[in-house]
Write a structure and sequence with these properties.
Blueprint (H helix, E strand, L loop, with lengths): L2 H12 L8 H14 L9 H21 L3 E3 L6 E3 L2 H18 L18
Antiparallel strand pairs: 1-2
Helix pairs in contact: 1-2, 1-3, 2-3, 3-4
Length: 119
């Protein structure tokens, strides 16, 4: 797996310009993918870079959604709803698609990692 390529993909998925701050999430996602790989899997397949980035993006989206769900007007007086929670289902669907794309390389393509409480 190519960490620089995964970082570039994460930038595209997350919309975060400086993804260096997301390196711990990308490192953990890479470790998770390593644990899921079959022993004879080709670790240089580009799909794995996308999977690592998608998993890191999912965790980032979940962290943002867990933060305050309110944003305020410029005056700081009126609250309105945020769309942070809407990003999580999209990030999860993206990660699931890359899990499917890498199914032939993984020991557990239908990973419990992707399951949520409501499903």
């Amino acid at each position: 797996m190519n960490q620089e390529k995964a970082r570039s993909i994460l930038r595209m998925f997350s919309g975060v310009a400086d993804v260096k701050s997301l390196d711990p999430l990308l490192d953990e996602a890479t470790a998770q993918v390593e644990r899921m790989l079959l022993p004879d899997a080709d670790r240089e397949r580009p799909q794995l870079d996308y999977l690592c980035a998608a998993l890191a993006n999912l965790r980032h989206s979940q962290m943002l959604a867990a933060q305050s769900q309110l944003t305020y007007t410029y005056a700081g007086t009126v609250a309105k709803e945020s769309d942070r929670g809407q990003k999580v289902p999209f990030a999860q669907a993206l990660a699931e698609e890359y899990l499917k794309a890498c199914a032939d390389l993984l020991t557990c393509p239908a990973s419990p990692l992707m399951q949520t409480g409501g499903q």
